[in-house]
Design a protein that fits this description.
The protein has 336 residues and is α/β, with parallel strands linked by helices. It folds into two domains: 89 residues, 2-Layer Sandwich (Ribosomal Protein S8, Chain: A, domain 1), CATH 3.30.1370.10; 211 residues, P-loop containing nucleotide triphosphate hydrolases (Rossmann fold, 3-Layer(aba) Sandwich), CATH 3.40.50.300. 40% of the residues lie in helices and 17% in strands.
């Protein structure tokens, strides 16, 4: 391995060094089981750490030399230790993992131990919760019959619910997966849609198909849909049914009214789990119609075997800008 440099970070690092005395510390790689995984492709994990924490890293044989302000170097050493624990535990490591661990630390939280892999996709990608909120959501799904994940776009609510559903199906804990969404237009009038029922509702359910195709082997999604092992349906078609021995997911639940959400929740049958996800800041219901998701925290806070997990902008893992966009909208006051 050889030393790499990132001149674009030098100015930011120098500003930090001016604020406090510059120090240097050493992190030994001899205790790392796989230094290549630890450092990342083209040392990408170390580059990510440099970007988030105002330090400079030099690779010197079997050691890393860290230089920067005292607090920055201390933070970086803690993150590197978490990275070593993860790699020695057999996990892969990505720059996103490093950034998220650093973000937790800089927010005043102690980076948690590297979470276990929930699922490995057909392309070898390891799926695991990456933030404290995501970990809480996954634990809530695993430990409760009914779990709600409420939070902004990009927090992985739908995808993690899908991962847990596919895991349960693969483990034969349930015999089928039922995926549901309200067929509500997102602020646009799409007009008449041609075709049969499936063709009419498919545009609303496309994100669920995309998640399935990422998790399952080529052709498996179509096979499961044909057999009924996986069912995808609009919310309106749930009335009158009892969903037993199933993992049931309601996505975009902010677009379900109070009555619709009550109807859906009462569909649960024996040996079933239910996960409801949504974002109360993106309701597409007609003006004056209240989303049923608004009532959930008060309705179910004290009921055993029901968990309500609130995610926030710090749990956004889609792209760094998404978290900033969510935060900007949350702080914006149009009357100001």
């Amino acid at each position: 391995m050889k030393r790499w440099t990132q001149s674009s970070n030098d100015d930011a690092a120098d500003e930090s060094f001016d604020a406090q005395a510059r120090i240097e510390r050493v992190f030994e790689l001899t205790g790392v089981r796989d230094p290549l995984v630890f450092c990342g492709h083209l040392d990408g994990n170390l580059s990510a750490l440099e970007r988030v924490v105002a330090i400079v890293i030099n690779l010197d044989g079997d050691r890393l030399r860290l230089s920067g302000g005292a607090s920055a170097v201390a933070s970086a050493l803690l993150i590197l230790e978490r990275m070593r624990e993860a790699v020695n535990g057999g996990a892969s490591l990505t720059p996103d993992d490093v950034v998220l661990a650093a973000r937790e630390l800089l927010d005043g939280k102690t980076p948690a131990a590297h979470p276990k892999t929930l699922y490995t996709t057909q392309r070898g990608k390891e799926i695991r919760p990456k933030t404290a909120g995501q970990r809480a959501f996954v634990e809530a799904i695993a430990q409760n019959t009914l779990a709600f994940g409420i939070g902004p776009a990009g927090t992985g609510k739908t995808f993690l619910a899908m991962v847990m559903a596919v895991r349960a199906l693969r483990a034969r804990e349930i015999s089928r997966i039922v995926l549901c969404r309200p067929a509500v237009e997102a602020g646009e009038k799409l007009g008449f849609l041609p075709g049969d029922l499936k063709e009419k509702v498919d545009p609303y359910l496309r994100p669920l198909y995309d998640a399935l195709n990422e998790l399952l082997e080529d052709g498996t999604t179509a096979k499961f849909l044909e057999r009924g092992t996986i069912e995808v349906a609009p919310l309106a078609y749930m009335r009158g049914r009892t969903l037993a021995d199933a993992f049931v997911i309601l996505d975009e639940a902010q677009n379900a009214t109070r009555d619709q959400l009550k109807m859906f929740l009462t569909r649960i049958g024996q040996n079933s789990r239910m996960v409801v996800t949504g974002d109360v800041t993106q309701v597409d219901l007609p003006r004056g119609v209240r989303s049923g998701l608004h009532d959930v925290p008060k309705l179910f806070a004290e009921i055993e075997d029901i968990a309500v997990v609130n995610l926030s902008e710090v749990d956004v893992v889609r792209h760094p800008l998404v978290g900033k966009i969510v935060g900007a909208y949350a702080r914006f006051n149009p009357s100001a």
